Sequence to fold (321 residues):
Amino acid sequence: MPKRSKPAEKGKRKDKGIPVKKTYKAIIGIVVILALSAFLLLFVRRQAKDATTTTPVAKTVTKEASNQETASQEAGNQEASNQETASQEAGNQATSNQEKLDTKESCADKFYFLDAKGAEHVTRINKDVEMSPYAKEKFTKKDGRTYYKDATYRSRIGIDVSHHQGQIDWQQVKADGIEFAFIRIGYRGYGEEGSLKEDTEALRNIENAGKAGVEVGVYFFSQAVNEEEAVEEADFVLKALQGKKLELPVVFDPENILDDDARTDYVSKEQFTQNAIAFCEKIKETGYTPAVYCNMMWEAYKLDLSKLESYDIWYADYEAT
Fold:
C-alpha cells in the first residue's frame, strides 16, 4: 500500500518545490506497490473462488453422509420394526393357538344350551354327577308330544295342573292318553311376607284324578329363603295331604319370579340346595317319596346336583327349538 504523504502546512501548496528525481522514484514505488496489490487481490479472489467452489462439495459430502446415516437409521428402524412385527405376530399366533387349544381342551367340560327365550348359555359339566342314561336319538315326536323308548326306559305322558286350569274333567283327561298328573298342593307368596296358601283345587283334583285312573303326585311352589322356611313348607304339604295315598313323589318346586321383585332374588345356589334338602328330608320322614323340580337354568346355576343325587328329579325342558 502507498505511504500517505505528510499533511501540507496550512496556507502552503503541497507540490511546491518537489525535485524531479525524487518524483520519479516515488512513481516507481507506487507502480510496484500497485502491482503487488493487484497480485494479492487476484490471489485472494482465487482463494475465495476456490473456497466458494469447494463449499458445495463439502455440503454434498455432508448430505451424502446424512443420507447414509438416515438410510442406515431407516434400515435399522425398518429391521427393528420388522423384527418387532414378526415377534408380535408370532406372539399373537401363539396366543391364538393357545386359546384355540384351551377351547378345544375345555369343550368336553362345557355344556351349551338355550333357554325358553332362545338365549344361549354355557355351564361346566359337573363330573361328580352321574350322566343322563338317555340317548338323544331315542326321543321321538308324534302329534306334538315327545316320547322315549329304549331297552331299559319307556316314557309316559303326564301333565301338571293347578287352580288356574279350573275344574278339570279327569275322565276326559284319561281318555286323551294322560297317564299321570302332578297337582299343585300349595304355594308360598313371593312378597316380603311370604304367606303359605293351599291351592283351592288341590284336594278335588287329587280325588278325581285318582277315580279316573290317573296316577297322582303333588308339588309345592316354594319361595323359601332358608331351611326353616323349607321345612315349614314341607309341614304345610303334609298337613294338606292328610295321609292321602300318592303314586308319585311330593315335589319341591323352587322357581324364579321373572316379571317382579321376589323375596328369593338374592338367595344363593348353596342356600337353594340346602332348602331342597331340608324339604325333601322332612317329606321322606313320613313315608312319601320326595323329589326336586328344576329346569336347565336351575341345574346349571341354582342347585348343586351333586348334593341332591339321593332324590328324584322332575326335569322341565322348555328349550327353544
